[in-house]
Amino acid sequence: MVLLKAIKATSTHDTRGKSVGHWPTDSLAQIGTRVNPEKPLLERWPEWMDLRTLQMYAKTSDRTIRVWIHLPINPLPASQVAGGKILVKRSRFDTWLEAHPFEAIDSIDVAGVADEIMNQFRKAA
User: What is the pTM for the complete model shown?
Assistant: First the structure.
């Protein structure tokens, strides 16, 4: 295990001479996370991530992650430890995210959904 800031100094360069770094090494170095550079990229991320690390992993904002955690239906599984710190297990996040595939608005039968809701109201009345 080595501190990422030491790895960052050994970054590679593209054909224009611009540093391309060692993703996700550069991102994790910002928060001082320790990783084994011999592991595959996915395994370089810690298994339990705080919200700041999860932001970098998911490439999304803190607010979006907090909204996902507090969804009334199928929220993102998270744990809160002493002191209020919220942690998310990487494997659970990956599974949760895969369960939410993108659906184009054209693929949703809006009329069918509306009819089903109206039928439920009629049955209740």
Answer: 0.53
